[in-house]
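Thread amino acids onto this structure.
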């Protein structure tokens, strides 16, 4: 079988060689087409599209048919977007449309481009195209193909679209929205190179978060002394001791605005040669379940990464950047008014916690990063030789404080407490102890840290007993020390170690902790840690002198008492931000001077999201409900007699519906002559108007119930009603479990119009 190129007529014996050639040949065609005279645009596009069609039919199995009718001029970019989202990424048709590192998009704006500052697109078609291109990250080449396709098949005498995608991107870059603007400031100059901080204003970031729909629902405004059975309960951040002491320090009548920061450097390419250091912000006033969603966080900026032999200069650059970002907290001596739940509220913004991995936490605290330093813990002054000691007393764990560390810095004795010779900006911030605010992160401490060590050391022990298996089952792998290994670890201890780990890890994921829960958790941590040390102390090259082990054992309980449940300050929900704010924008840049390009990409993404929200299709008018069958028919005056006759022949749900029928109908209707009833039983989501919904906690405007009966009321016109037994959130404090509404069925019944039923949902028992 041979393959012939319709462009240059070359013949190939192998499909792969032909495909490679065809792609190059197409590029030559594109270059020739682009150099032609603009007066023959439509003819060129038609010719090129015909050539593409012929060429594609030779070597592609998947074919797309386009209906050539008069309705093409009304084609929707939404339908094109839907098609793109359904295509496989492995499809050869798709590879040339999506952005990829092999064909980077050049963000330099075309010269002599006539753009002007505005907040609206020239027309709906222009807007839909650019939202489509931005949403699906289509590169310039693919976007230009869409423009050619549209211009060929639409009946417009003048195209409503930009001449090319570069022009459309430049138009979006020039759109002005005050809450989407980033700035840059020179932080330092080193070896004739300028290092800039690219950032968004802190207060504007906060306002952006507060504009997210439903973000202020259950927004914490004050400390809550949450108790159960006379025990303090720690869950949301406003139940912790830090909130209580900080609130007491503020002026009477003001509220605390808790700022949570997350900072991390991440690689941008597959080889790890390039990095970007991003920092994000969210608010501790937002309930944990809502705060852990991506839209509750904002990119605050990109920190400069200084590569210099002078490490103090690197550290100073980092803290100068933080000062520039967070200085509004110091300058706002009278606080700030923010619009929360339809009223202005007086706030004082304060940094509560900083979520970071161990090296990053050391950078914030300006302590020695090395685990081999004499005092390697950034929270306390424990000595290195005591890192694996599980039985330290309170006097052995002396916490670091701003006053003490500043005193050592000013007296030039910072080496005695293992802090760097750089002024720590956080010493100047109110209501924060940076050494405690950099809380232990469960993902880096446990998942990527201690459990990683546990697996490695277990493998070493099994190898010493010549057990060469993958670790799925630990129990009964070996019995005795047949190989006479020194410091032998018996199999039972190894089994108990993993048993204790599971118990500790499950407790760490509690959504709220009572004091008795904390005692139980602390016992579980120490039980696991003792077995961990017993099993691995002589396997570990450092004899388990691991800062993460010490930090987890001695500081996590105090963190819960200060800042609430661990779920509120773990990097698990932050790591995905790198993909959206760093990796994807970097991949479609030209890899040079990337920060401005990334910010333009992020701005276009934000515009796309905003415009999409504003252009949501209006809710469809519900179709009139027509019952296909009637199970029962009776008149109102005979209802009780009818129900008594049928109650033994129906299931429990229907019996419940019969029992509640009259009382619920009385509250819904004043007078009825007769009606017909059919049965339907399902879990459903229901929409309410704004007045009704004030009494309920919603799931993004939806409320859940179980439909017991459907009834058709024979009035003129007929009324279609559903008898509902309602679900409520099991906990108003923690309404979500695993990202889903956590519900319970309650003894509350109402008739609602069938048209208000949003859809059927599946309730997992």
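Threaded sequence (765 positions):
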């Amino acid at each position: 079988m041979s393959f012939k190129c319709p462009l240059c007529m070359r013949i190939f014996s192998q499909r792969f060689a032909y495909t490679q050639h065809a792609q190059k040949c197409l590029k030559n065609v594109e270059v020739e087409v682009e150099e032609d005279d603009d007066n023959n645009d439509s003819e060129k596009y038609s010719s090129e599209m015909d050539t593409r069609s012929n060429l594609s039919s030779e070597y592609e199995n998947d074919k797309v048919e386009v209906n050539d009718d008069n309705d093409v001029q009304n084609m929707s970019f939404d339908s094109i977007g839907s098609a793109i989202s359904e295509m496989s990424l492995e499809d050869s048709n798709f590879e040339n449309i999506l952005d990829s590192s092999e064909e980077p998009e050049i963000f330099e704006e075309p010269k002599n481009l006539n753009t002007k500052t505005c907040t609206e697109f020239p027309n709906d078609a222009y807007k839909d195209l650019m939202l489509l291109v931005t949403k699906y990250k289509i590169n310039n080449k693919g976007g230009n193909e869409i423009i050619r396709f549209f211009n060929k098949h639409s009946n417009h005498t003048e195209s409503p679209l930009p001449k090319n995608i570069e022009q459309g991107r430049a138009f979006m870059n020039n759109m002005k929205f005050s809450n989407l603007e980033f700035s840059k400031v020179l932080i330092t100059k080193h070896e004739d190179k300028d290092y800039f901080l690219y950032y968004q204003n802190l207060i504007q970031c906060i306002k952006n978060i507060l504009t997210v729909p439903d973000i202020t629902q259950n927004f914490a405004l004050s400390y809550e002394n949450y108790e159960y059975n006379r025990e303090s309960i720690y869950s949301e951040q406003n139940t912790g001791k830090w909130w209580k002491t900080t609130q007491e320090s503020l002026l009477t009548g003001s509220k605390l605005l808790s700022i949570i920061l997350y900072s991390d450097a991440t690689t941008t390419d597959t080889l790890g040669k390039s990095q970007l250091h991003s920092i994000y912000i969210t608010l501790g006033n937002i309930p944990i379940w809502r705060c852990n969603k991506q839209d509750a966080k904002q990119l605050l900026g990109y920190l400069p990464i200084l590569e210099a032999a002078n490490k103090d200069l690197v550290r100073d650059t980092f803290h100068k950047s933080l000062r520039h970002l967070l200085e509004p907290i110091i300058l706002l001596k009278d606080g700030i008014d923010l619009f929360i739940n339809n009223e202005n509220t007086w706030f004082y913004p304060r940094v509560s916690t900083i979520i970071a991995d161990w090296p990053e936490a050391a950078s914030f605290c300006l302590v020695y990063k090395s685990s081999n330093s004499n005092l390697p813990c950034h929270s306390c002054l424990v000595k290195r030789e005591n890192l694996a000691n599980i039985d330290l007393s309170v006097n052995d764990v002396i916490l670091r404080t701003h006053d003490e560390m500043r005193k050592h810095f000013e007296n030039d004795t910072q080496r005695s407490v293992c802090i760097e010779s750089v002024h720590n900006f956080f010493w100047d911030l109110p209501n924060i102890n940076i050494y405690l605010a950099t809380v232990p992160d469960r993902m880096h401490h446990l998942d990527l840290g201690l459990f990683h060590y546990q697996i490695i050391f277990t493998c070493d022990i099994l190898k010493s007993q010549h057990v060469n298996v993958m670790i799925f089952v630990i129990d009964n792998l070996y019995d005795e020390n047949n190989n006479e290994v020194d410091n032998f670890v018996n199999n039972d201890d190894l089994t108990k170690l993993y048993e204790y780990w599971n118990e500790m890890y499950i407790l760490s994921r509690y959504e709220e902790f009572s004091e008795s829960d904390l005692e139980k958790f602390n016992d579980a941590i120490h039980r696991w840690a003792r077995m961990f040390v017993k099993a691995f102390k002589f396997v570990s090259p450092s004899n388990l002198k691991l800062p993460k082990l010490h930090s987890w054992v001695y500081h996590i309980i105090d963190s819960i008492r200060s800042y609430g449940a661990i779920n509120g300050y773990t990097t698990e929900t932050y790591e995905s931000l790198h993909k959206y704010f760093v990796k994807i924008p970097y991949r479609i840049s030209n890899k040079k001077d990337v920060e401005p390009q990334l910010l333009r990409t992020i701005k276009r993404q934000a515009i796309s999201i905003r415009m999409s929200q504003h252009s949501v299709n209006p809710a469809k008018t519900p179709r009139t409900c027509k019952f296909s069958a009637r199970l029962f028919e009776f008149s109102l005056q005979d209802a009780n007699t009818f129900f008594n006759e049928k109650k033994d022949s129906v299931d429990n749900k229907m019996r419940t519906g019969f029992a509640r029928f009259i009382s619920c109908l009385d509250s819904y209707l004043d007078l009825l002559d007769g009606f017909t009833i059919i049965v339907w039983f399902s879990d459903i989501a229901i929409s309410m108007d704004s007045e009704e919904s004030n009494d309920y906690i919603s799931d993004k405007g939806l409320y859940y119930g179980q439909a017991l009966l459907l009834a058709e009321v024979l009035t003129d016109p007929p009324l279609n009603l559903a008898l509902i037994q309602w679900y409520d959130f099991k906990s108003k404090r923690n309404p979500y479990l695993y990202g889903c509404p956590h519900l319970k069925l309650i003894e509350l019944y109402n008739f609602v119009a069938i048209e208000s039923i949003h859809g059927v949902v599946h309730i997992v028992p």
